Amino acid sequence: MSRLEAPGTIRSHEQELKKAGDPTAMGTHCELRGATRVYPGSAGRPALHALGPIDLELEAGRFYAVVGPSGCGKSTLLELLAGLASPSEGEVFINGQPIEGNVADGVGVVFQDDASFPWLTVWDNIAFGLRQKGVSENIISEKVKGATKLMGLTGFESAYPAQLSGGMRQRVCIARTLMMEPKLILLDEPFGALDQQTRLLMGDELLNLWRETGATVLLITHALDEAAMLADVVCVMSARPGVLLDVVETGWPRDRDSRIVSKPEFGAITSRLWSLLREESLNALDTKQRGS
Ligand SMILES: Nc1ncnc2c1ncn2[C@@H]1O[C@H](COP(=O)(O)OP(=O)(O)OP(=O)(O)O)[C@@H](O)[C@H]1O
């Protein structure tokens, strides 16, 4: 069942897994402490306080989703964790080490926009990062084969992105990220452009991937049902500047799949998320309509 816990209390789960010697608890541990992000003003535009302060701890090997009103700072939060931006105040730690604007090793990011390279085949798209790193072709070949199989792309290795569906192109991007064996996978609305059925199936694939790699996953999504189905923990953000409103533990078993959407608990979780977000979303809409 859905239950709410204060952000600090989720630490115990990781400790339990480690004590039990769980091999899947191999992902990255992340922590934001008092992190804020203010975009400086320019050309007569005032500075914009986009995020925080936020305190959030991501335990190794768990699946997190972040939901919140449009423009509340979800992508900004992801950029801080990815090391693509530095906090204006506060700190971000990856495995206990502060990061300051450096993309940490073992972090993979997947964005909403189809980021496949149109001039490369599926195979070469997936191999791209490893080639950049100078990895030998033998090893690349083995890894690409594994990734195409895992992402259901076998048989399409020599196709170009334009010959694939949107869902397949997004799988190519996920496979390319996977190649780098990330211990922290950050996804910003990766299924936003897909139809509902494809989103559910991609969600199942993402769950498989998460189980197989033991990575820590943080998924940003507008879709409350996607968050409720996929995540162990749903972080609910307020309207801008986004702060953590609540942390909802879904309580799903690790071997879940999209069939849980028919369970009564699923409806209870999505209702809980909407009751937390409804007022915030109205506030965000109101602010947008006032043009501030
Ligand atoms: N580089 C930037 N410079 C100035 N303002 C920015 C920049 N990037 C984002 N913002 C602003 O910061 C706020 C938060 O943006 P962000 O993209 O993090 O929100 P979000 O919750 O991911 O939005 P959405 O739900 O619409 O995708 C928004 O008001 C946005 O316009």
From TrEMBL:
ABC transporter domain location, by residue?
32-264
Listed CDD domains:
ABC_NrtD_SsuB_transporters
Q: What class of enzyme is it?
A: hydrolase
Residue numbers spanned by region Disordered: 1-26
Q: What is its EC number?
A: 3.6.3.36
Q: Which top-level group of life is the source organism from?
A: Bacteria
**Repeat listed as a keyword:** no
Q: Name one GO molecular function term.
A: ATP hydrolysis activity
Which Pfam families does the protein's record reference?
Answer: ABC_tran
UniProt keyword terms in alphabetical order = ATP-binding, Hydrolase, Nucleotide-binding, Transport
Among PANTHER family, the record links this protein to:
ALIPHATIC SULFONATES IMPORT ATP-BINDING PROTEIN SSUB (PTHR42788:SF13), TAURINE IMPORT ATP-BINDING PROTEIN-RELATED (PTHR42788)
Please report which protein family the annotation says this sequence is part of: Belongs to the ABC transporter superfamily.
Annotated protein name in UniProt = Taurine transporter ATP-binding subunit
